[in-house]
Structures
1.
Amino acid sequence: MLKVEHIGIAVKDLAQSIPLFEKLLNTPCYKTESVASEQVTTAFFRQGDTKIELLESSSPEGVIAKFIDKKGEGMHHIAFEVADLEVEMQRLQNEGFTLLNPTPKLGADNKRICFLHPKGTNGVLIELCQEIKPGE
Ligand code: ZN
């Protein structure tokens, strides 16, 4: 894996959390994006070489709404950038990790992504992501 690409934080209300994190990080939110397939709206902040991704559920049935119901707001996942998503997915599967999606899916911020089941990673939800290059 190349680096921590971003850290995902589940929030109830982006309208409140965006200005809060702008103050905290002293940097403006540079993008918000809805991912319909995940029933989530995201907001991104650059922090050095990595990013913070705030996640608000766009539906009471979405995974983020369910996460907040169970655990409250807070740390949701750590995303690692990889050079080749399929190769890394295969490697981790061979090592015994459970992939939550067997094929890559489209994520926010121009990425193809895959999640690992947190039961196999000490309770931490791990996202693998690879940037989609123009022409792909
Ligand atoms: Zn993420």
2.
Amino acid sequence: MKFFIDTANLAQIKEAHEMGVLDGVTTNPSLMAKEGITGHDNIINHYKAICEITDGDVSAEVIATTYDEIVAEGLALAKLHERIVVKVPMIKDGIKAIKYFTSKGIKTNCTLVFSAGQALLAAKAGATYVSPFVGRLDDVSTDGIQLIEDIRLIFDNYGYETQILAASVRHPMHIIQCAKIGSDVITGPLSAIAALLKHPLTDTGLAQFLADYQKGANKA
Ligand code: E4P
């Protein structure tokens, strides 16, 4: 399963990359704003900076919501770097644009997906990735992980190559549940990925090993 980090924070992207487990980056306009990156030129430069750090796919989200504008904005984003994936919202014009980008060999990530039917449409349009938002569904008392399971079943039934990118992942259990189901990718904050490292028995076990080694060294 691929690990993407869901942030526009360059330090966190570097940290995940240096850990050796980073397969890509997802961003969205809110994550850019959170880092104080505003205005077209700054956002474009920020995408370039992210592409310099990771050697995986980098999702860059269009702001446009009509077909012609999504196509124009997406083409410009795709030209920035070979690893840019054009992130397109799940709306009618977005699906049409994904179909167009697919025909041109441009990678896409269909975002803001909250149902299996939406994921099916994205797959039919040829999206490279489809992003069901697990955490935001959980937030409204709907089982986000169940959606990943449903989409996995549907895609496997028909052999769709669209990758399931479980988004809005909030904590390590989401990551484990996605891995058990067979999600192709998860994207979440560094905190959720780093939390996978943690187990109290690892900490106490390591402390014991080091203490016993030291005892032996003191005797020698
Ligand atoms: C998806 O690509 C989005 O950027 C993201 O995962 C949304 O997560 P949130 O619900 O934690 O904002």
3.
Amino acid sequence: MSSPPTATLIRNGRVITASDDYVADVLMKNGIIDTIGQNIVVGDDTAIIDAKGLYVLPGGVDTHVHLENVIGPTITCDTFASGTRAAAFGGTTTIVDFALQTETDSPLGAIARAQRSAQSQVAVDYSVHVIITRVDDQVLTDVRHAMRHEGVTSFKMFMAYPGVMMADDAAIFRMLRQVGADGGMVALHAENGTVIDLLIKEALEAGHTSPRYHALTRPAILEGEATHRGIRLAELAEAPIYFVHVSSNQALKHIVAARAEGISVFAETCPHYLLFDDSVYNTDYFEIAKYVMTPPLRKEDDQKHLWRALRYDDLQVIATDHCPFCMKEGHLGYRLQKMRGKDDFSLIPNGAPGIETRLVSLFDIGVMQGKLSLNRFVQLTATTPAKLFGLFPKKGTIAVGSDADVVLFDPAATQTIYAKDLQGNCDYTLLEGRTLRGKVEKVFLRGNLIVDGKQWLGREGMGQFVPRGQVRAF
Ligand code: URP
Ligand code: ZN
Ligand code: ZN
């Protein structure tokens, strides 16, 4: 009996990277891409997959996901196991989650805690950004240690959620100055939290309790104001800055202007801001709680600006902000998730799922509708997130020596999305019943076939923590 193959050859696929597009053979060996060429000759120890007609894409890199994240009084409903399995089925092989610095522990404690929960469960490779809620000399020392010795080189800070996560401007400035000088990145949630809290209080006092007031109390101008403030702090600190979940032209116009001035400003948007607009909020049915995420959905006009920015590189990343909470009370045992806010919109946990549908939804609305080239699609969903967060060239491309994280994608297939068919724990998807062009057929993580059509071949715990390097901004 012959021994099982130790390498895999992907024959005749169309290799798409951020810069190239050609038909070739790709040989994966020992977890990395060993050879790319024509008519590669292999022995019996190599499995051969015919990829004619399929795209060979680098595994997706999703740098904004919340798995098992404690957010206020509740927790996101995807575990590291369910969330990373969902990521894999969606063609994402590396995620960057969040490790929350609590009142009492240090950033280093937060990293260790996240790793303890994640390591036995993750089925794709992972890292974490540390959420910094408090800054003092010791925290800054620990941040430097995390960057130098733990391979954690990015940190998220909030200008929203006063009293919970919000950091003041001086704290943000101190972090920007040090992290920037050390070659890392501060990622900012830009919304003016104190004014939003006032608007929420006034709405509730006026008896406005339905979920539509979530959007009305978080106007785009307050995203724009905070974005402008963040940019000025980064400019003063001479540090790069990254804006998460940019939703509006109010924010974008400051980003565009700053980049034109030569300031190192980078930003992501998320599929939901491209797929939906704020017309979904025009009802008092609680059902719309599924669209309660932060920032909220914006106007059609904002979407036009987001697409323009994606094309012209004023937005460099599309990440999911996968932050799932169940709608149905008690689904999989999760109590009081979205229903927490049945009588008070401000108590609805903010966030929506999306980790499994990112690539296919963007392929459909971006590539197939002629808004993004294939190269740009790969750049936005894999290569640039890997570069900005210190994962490149190990992750984010198809090149000799890179990890053999590869997606075989069928551009000719179609699929209709239903929550019941998805791998994640969330009981809904924003794409319910929507037919999308394109399909993830096979996914390899470091050369291991983990998704084969509908079949799950991955394993909890096979994902690895990836120590990250410095930001590659240019
Ligand atoms: O609604 C959202 N985005 N929830 C997750 C937390 C955050 O701000 O990213
Ligand atoms: Zn945020
Ligand atoms: Zn988020």
4.
Amino acid sequence: MDKLVIEGGVPLAGTVAISGAKNAALPILTAALLTDEPLLIDNVPHLRDVSTMLNLLMQMGVTTSLDEKGGVELRAASITKPVAPYELVKTMRASVLVLGPLVARLGEARVSLPGGCAIGLRPVDQHLKGLQALGATIDMAQGYMIARAGRLRGARIRMDIVTVTGTENLMMAATLADGVTVIENAAREPEIPDLAACLTAMGAKISGAGTDVITIEGVARLHGAHHGVMPDRIETGTFLVAAAATGGDVRLTGVRPDTLDAVLDKLRETGVHIETGVDWMRVKANGALKAVNLRTAPYPAFPTDMQAQFMALCSVAQGTSRIIETIFENRFMHVQEMQRLGADIAVEGNTAMIKGVDHLQGATVMATDLRASASLVIAGLIARGATTVERIYHLDRGYERIEEKLSRLGARIRRVR
Ligand code: UD1
């Protein structure tokens, strides 16, 4: 299994290009199931989760081809096997995103229940409740959800909790329903308007994506389209925090600063200087970092996917920081690993208190999930001496060539196979 070995203590400096967003690319790839015409998608990041999704779609009969610029063409001329097997769903929960499109187009889907997940329970009850409201019947057998329907019919759906992939699944399903669907208490994450833009290019009629009420007027069929995936706001935030935490000066290109307000506010509170343009940003450390308090919540509040990385920064900030995690019940697994590097962190329930220490000291640590892995890389970049991050397959799920990008900013980091 690959590891990363990091010699910490180098302030990052230079320019880094940000990739397309994983969490936008995954639902957009599944949108290809909604039409028999080709869907061409640009700016698709080269990631393990993207290959997993492409494999899943190919197993269903979708043909795919790649161009060298990262563009992917998908064509679901006929779907031979509307099944998402356990082997794939257990490695990537986002596989559940095939459910809505399959039921809408074919009236049939068999998707494995995701099962346990390192960061918490993560049920899919809201996806199912919404599909039932649209007229699907759902049965459970041998660990699979089996959804069936004739043509779906539009409905008013009030989500009990804000769910990102739940909103995406129902938005996709409703595009081909008979009549109007209104999704209330919808997630407002920027990846949702990006998916809506792709669906609109395919002929869907959607308004309100990006707000908490989305209205979809069903159409009889969708057609092929060409769409570019938005920049990854979590990769952007990860590089911003890495630059700030190492006392660096980094310019990021190909970004969408307007999708990172909560993260930028918190970074500024730590004392770093940030400049933004339409599609670039520059972060420059400005003396010692100050402690901050933050609380994760659905967009536009502070993202849970940036919580672990901020904790690494807080571990060496002056003063005591408080981080409250409200989205996932078990998302502090990086804490024990950071403690092994010398961080002073106490956890009670969903609250972590982080007393800034003078420095971290390198050690061997183990990554347990995607964003926890990123936080350990940042901790390794700050620490004195060598840090080895094990089990980095989690990192490869969501960060494109992270060690290459960090090396170009001066980090001493290498992958050991
Ligand atoms: C998406 C993101 C993930 C991010 C998360 C929260 C993708 C592919 N993944 O995951 O990176 O961390 O949003 O911003 O976009 N819940 C239920 N019932 C449901 C659905 C969700 O109780 O039917 C709960 C979950 O357990 C969790 C909360 O709702 O506590 C939010 O989860 P959700 O927004 O659905 O996360 P994902 O869409 O899986």
